[in-house]
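ingest -> validate -> predict -> emit
validate: passed (alphabet ok, no gaps, 213 aa)
predict: started
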Amino acid sequence: MSWTVEAICTGKPVPFNGAEKSAFAKQPVDGAVRITLEGIESDEQADRKHHGGPEMAIHLYPLDHHEFWRGALMGHELLDQPGAFGSNLAVQGIDEAQVHIGDRFRLGSALLEISQSRQPCWKIEHRFQRKGMVAMIIETGKCGWYFRVLEEGVAKPGDTLERVETGHESWSVERAFLTLFSPISDKDNLAQLAALDRLSPDHKARAARRADS
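emit:
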């Protein structure tokens, strides 16, 4: 299967919460971009401890979810922006139920692999100035996901995101996210999740801790 990338978005650290900076707000770029093992060459992260790096090189938050949030938030001007949720790739017609941990995609000349779901944090609610969004993401599984970069390359808006290999077929991103972040989760499922070889080390460790607790 393949999907069209409508926009590629990047950000620079700017004041976000008082003196704290963030590159959460992503804006579309024109023309081709270089994709490296660390992500899109012109993209930056202010908090490198919790964001960015090879296991969270590129973020995709499905554009289709913007319509859900228009209803949930009774409209919001930020939802007209393709990078409103910090997403690097703006793609219609794809969601967490359709893709799996370890799925591989060709984007331009780069090869990407889904490494983990995205854990929602306070920055989403701060940017939208709405409480309760994190809880809604955990309830619905509308989390988005991260790619690692297996082969560096070049891509541009309008390119195809083509799935070239299915990863852990029984573990959709939606299932992995709900297993890991729902308040109550089955220990056997957590143990299975922790054993997935294509899952990021951070999420493998988190699943193992929850399975043992």
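The helical segments are 65-72, 122-128, 133-140, 173-181, 187-194, 201-212.
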